[in-house]
Amino acid sequence: MLSEIQDLTARIAPRLIEIRRHIHAHPELSGQERQTAAYVAGVLSSAGLHVKEEVGKTGVIAELPGAETGAGCLAIRTDMDALPIHESTDLEFASRQTGVMHACGHDVHTTLGLGTAMVLSELGIPLPGTVRFIFQPAEEIAKGAGWMVEEGVMEDVKAILGVHVYPTIPAGSVGVRYGALTAAADEIELTIVGESGHGARPHEAKDAIWIAAQVITSLQQAISRTQNPLRPVVLSFGQISGGRAHNVIADRVQLTGTVRSLHPETSAQLPQWIEGIVKSICDCYGATYEFSYRRLVPSVQNDSNITQLIERAAQKALGGDRVINLLEPSLGAEDFSLYLDHAPGSMFRLGIGHTNKTNYPLHHPKFEVDESAIAIGVITLAYAAALYWQQEETK
């Protein structure tokens, strides 16, 4: 079956590059992926799959039925949204939408989902169980997976596969990681409420800017002294605003930030820990505060059995020297984790790095992809799906 998957992928490889370039040239922001979704649905319908549109607002799902009824589903999830970044590449197929760019590789992810569907639909012997392809919107704002789950895309799903491009891995290779792949991402909104006064008489006021500075500094210091260094926590305030004039002490300061962590136990205690520090400082200086802590997505925790399946598929398809065991997780976030609340799964990294030019990081306006990686990703996903159902048959 592997040789058939490789041959089918080679046959459609030029078409897959066309698909990727079309999607790249026509990026759409999170929750606005209507043209992308329509294009995806058209390709899937042409491949003979059962397609359902407007799932999770602008998402698409498609199913390739298995030979055995009642065997359940293996899901393959890819995402479709772009970023509010102005593209600065010189590509002929660069974004035609001002200020919008596929700078995170979701154009490649969508193409991988389509290519895998096309290949599996043409196999001479159908797979025993159903494969459900999930084309998700709004990953960049960490909402799309939740929308899709709410509409039942994980019903009857026994396992789920995911993929994300990685520019530091050369094209032709893939990376797998056991355990934590990405971090939990949470959001803080904090307002320090002091008391206004004249800038020349600070002792008559309660300086919200100065108190906010104490909060920021104390939180960063407390991380290094009170949090387990083997279980990292990153807290970054990205916005701060307050004050009305250069000689008036501010009575209110608003801060928003992000919190990243890898271990569920650490993540669970962070809201109380952060608020405790804020409260103690505000109490000390006679201020009050308003605190909001919003959990966005948990950490992606790759299932060991599914990760092993992907690793085995990649080793057989590509060769062992082209499969990298990733030693470190990323503190970036991925709402793929929300699917893992409903079924075991694993996300792998697809190398898209060039060997002869600069590889810009994800979310960079000059981010580019070595398109030879597309065929590698399709073969890995398709063969992993085939191995999964072969494995299920022998249970």
Automatic annotation (TrEMBL):
SUPFAM superfamilies in UniProt: Bacterial exopeptidase dimerisation domain, Zn-dependent exopeptidases
InterPro entries: Amidohydrolase, Bact_exopeptidase_dim_dom, Peptidase_M20, Peptidase_M20_dimer
Stored Pfam families: M20_dimer, Peptidase_M20
Sequence ranges assigned to domain Peptidase M20 dimerisation in this UniProt record: 188-281
PANTHER family recorded: METALLOPEPTIDASE, PUTATIVE (AFU_ORTHOLOGUE AFUA_6G09600)-RELATED, PEPTIDASE M20 FAMILY MEMBER
NCBIfam families for this protein: amidohydrolases (TIGR01891)
Protein name: M20 family metallopeptidase
Record organism: Roseofilum halophilum BLCC-M91
Top-level taxonomy: Bacteria, Bacillati, Cyanobacteriota, Cyanophyceae, Desertifilales
